């Protein structure tokens, strides 16, 4: 009997030792990165993380990639999809967030200095001046286009690009006026533009408005804080133009909503950036 008890105890101890050895190691710390939840900007954010070695996407994920397309996640990153405009206010609640420069600057962040990593200036996501299809050649629209493609606007981005996180992509800046337009006929006309606050409304009010005023054209800027209504009000004809988005976003919006908004000029690019929230650097990840 004594021998049986001894053997039973030995078996229990051995089983306990084997169980202890087989327990998984303490789970690695996970980090949360919030990204924009609209299709094109989420894909763009994930591409930024991939380009900097933080994740790897599935082959061919492309411009519609989501967190479900992450193939490799060596740093245990949890992707949280948040409406783009809300990201700055939620930054303190996550480890990191990928934020559009206009929203970052509007929240007091300096995209040129505060972003831990950023897209290069060669990003294909240039912000556009967009109008309702069919109105592209209206004189007041062409006057607005010429003013936005001016040397004055290009110089404004050159002078304030660091804090705005924006780089001009205007290829052949003009004096702000189109010689083919009869500006006398536009004297007294008002042109309306939907825009997000920074840098779009800022550029329109600080630079474009005075250019148009020289010809008697009134520029009315209507500010929005979302990415939906600026296209809706242009498509409905309520507002003449908008200036807030990049081409891939516009293409996706038209496809999903049956709208007919078209771009007529490339103005600037806002490199997307990764900002620290609970973490102040990338050291915690690596």
What attributes characterize this protein structure?
single chain; 286 residues; alpha/beta; disordered N terminus; 2 domains; D-Maltodextrin-Binding Protein, domain 2; elongated; 11 helices; Dipeptide-binding Protein, domain 3
Describe the structure concisely for a colleague.
With 286 residues, this protein is an alpha/beta fold. Helices cover 39% and strands 22% of the residues. The protein has two domains: 31-120 and 273-284, D-Maltodextrin-Binding Protein, domain 2; 126-269, Dipeptide-binding Protein, domain 3, CATH 3.10.105.10.
Could you characterize what this model shows?
The chain is of the alpha/beta class and 286 residues long. It folds into two domains: 31-120 and 273-284, D-Maltodextrin-Binding Protein, domain 2 (3-Layer(aba) Sandwich); 126-269, Dipeptide-binding Protein, Domain 3 (Dipeptide-binding Protein, domain 3, Roll), CATH 3.10.105. The protein contains eleven helices and 13 strands. The chain has helices at 2-22, 39-51, 87-90, 101-106, 111-114, 139-148, 151-164, 183-186, 197-213, 229-235, 247-257, and strands spanning 31-36, 56-57, 70-72, 77-82, 96-99, 117-118, 126-132, 167-168, 190-195, 218-223, 241-246, 261-269, 273-276. The strands form three sheets. It has a six-stranded mixed sheet with strand order 8-12-7-11-9-10, sandwiched between helices.
